[in-house]
């Protein structure tokens, strides 16, 4: 398991370097040199809007340098000329499998405690002389800590491979920027791992637990769309808003994207919160509640409130598309907002109180049967 996790970082770095070297070999091939000399008009390196004409390199080396330099900005032609935390920088040679790491960490965190419940391993653990607090901290030390260590080593190996695998003249970034990007990636990765652990401890139903996990994962994939909606609201409220690219807020692949420090502090606080919530809930788990939607049924109401609030904040801006109405000064769709809000409330209730469904349906049919007869 740890080997697979480390391999994602290692082979992603090696694959990126291989892509760059293949491109470099082509730019130094006889085929490219001949084509460049015969058809120089096909090899522009930008466009001068003032003069309304294409910009061409002075020689073939300038063209190579222009295209082999690693990092670019989406609104800036050619290599990036400056660095700013919170901005996204493209690596056109990136061939990364690291996008799978966050999914892997989330599912792995969920499985660490959820499988123990469903395999009845908790029956054995709870029969030991150790307290539940000691059991929880023991698993965090012996299982979770090695996972985090693997992510640290994998991130560092990926950074070293990408930084030293390409000649320095083509790396338009400092090593410290790579390290900060790796640190940003590590913090969000640990947060995702702890979120998975919290869900794995909180959810107890063999069928509905994994379904909720999938729903959460799919919802998180909509982060960029939700963030763009809220970004528009920020623009409307402040005269000089600071724009952060969502790729820099959630650094999926270590490169030079850096998350602002206060966002990292927020992620760290959330991680600590998830840790203490996980530990507290684990200590309240009872074998009598095995199979229930929530392992601690007394938490149903606070979980319902939390889920309702998060789903409303997440889905109302997305489905109501309020930014469109603000932008074009149209009538705000209050009906759509109300319907989406009600759907979020009803869905949250059905998920949290799903254990009551069979009894409620049974009582309904029983009363209906008595009325008929």
From TrEMBL:
<keyword id="KW-0472">Membrane</keyword>
<feature type="transmembrane region" description="Helical">
    <location>
        <begin position="178"/>
        <end position="199"/>
    </location>
</feature>
<feature type="transmembrane region" description="Helical">
    <location>
        <begin position="261"/>
        <end position="282"/>
    </location>
</feature>
<keyword id="KW-1133">Transmembrane helix</keyword>
<feature type="transmembrane region" description="Helical">
    <location>
        <begin position="332"/>
        <end position="354"/>
    </location>
</feature>
<protein>
    <recommendedName>
        <fullName>ABC transporter permease</fullName>
    </recommendedName>
</protein>
<feature type="transmembrane region" description="Helical">
    <location>
        <begin position="303"/>
        <end position="326"/>
    </location>
</feature>
<feature type="transmembrane region" description="Helical">
    <location>
        <begin position="206"/>
        <end position="223"/>
    </location>
</feature>
<keyword id="KW-0812">Transmembrane</keyword>
<feature type="transmembrane region" description="Helical">
    <location>
        <begin position="97"/>
        <end position="115"/>
    </location>
</feature>
<feature type="transmembrane region" description="Helical">
    <location>
        <begin position="143"/>
        <end position="166"/>
    </location>
</feature>
């Amino acid at each position: 398991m740890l080997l697979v996790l480390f391999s994602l970082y290692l082979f992603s770095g090696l694959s990126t370097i291989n892509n760059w070297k293949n491109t470099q070999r082509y730019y130094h091939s006889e085929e490219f040199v001949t084509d460049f000399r015969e058809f120089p008009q096909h090899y522009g390196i930008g466009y001068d809007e003032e003069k309304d004409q294409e910009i061409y390199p002075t020689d073939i080396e300038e063209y190579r340098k222009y295209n082999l330099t690693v990092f670019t900005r989406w609104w800036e032609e050619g290599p990036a000329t400056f660095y700013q935390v919170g901005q996204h920088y493209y690596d056109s040679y990136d061939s990364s499998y690291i996008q799978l790491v966050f999914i892997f960490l989330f599912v792995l965190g969920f499985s660490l405690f959820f499988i123990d419940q469903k395999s009845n391993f908790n029956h054995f653990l709870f029969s030991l002389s150790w307290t539940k607090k000691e059991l929880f901290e023991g698993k965090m030390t012996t299982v979770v800590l090695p996972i985090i260590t693997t992510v640290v080593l994998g991130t560092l190996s990926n950074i070293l491979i990408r930084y030293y695998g390409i000649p320095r003249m083509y790396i338009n970034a400092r090593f410290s920027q790579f390290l900060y990007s790796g640190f940003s990636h590590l913090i969000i990765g640990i947060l995702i791992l702890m979120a998975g652990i919290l869900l794995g401890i909180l959810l107890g139903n063999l069928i509905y637990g994994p379904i909720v996990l999938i729903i959460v994962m799919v919802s998180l994939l909509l982060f960029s769309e939700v963030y763009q909606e809220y970004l528009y609201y920020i623009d409307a409220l402040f005269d000089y808003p600071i724009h952060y690219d969502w790729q820099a807020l959630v650094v999926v692949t270590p490169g030079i994207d850096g998350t602002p420090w206060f966002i990292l502090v927020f992620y760290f606080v959330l991680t600590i919160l998830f840790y203490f919530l996980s530990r507290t809930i684990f200590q309240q788990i009872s074998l009598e509640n095995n199979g229930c939607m929530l392992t601690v049924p007394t938490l149903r109401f606070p979980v319902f409130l939390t889920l309702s609030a998060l789903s409303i904040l997440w889905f109302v801006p997305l489905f109501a598309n309020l930014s469109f109405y603000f932008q074009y000064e149209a009538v705000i769709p209050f009906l759509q907002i109300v319907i989406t809000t009600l759907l979020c409330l009803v869905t949250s209730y059905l998920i949290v109180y799903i254990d009551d469904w069979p009894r409620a349906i049974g009582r309904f049919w029983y009363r209906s049967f008595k009325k008929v007869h």
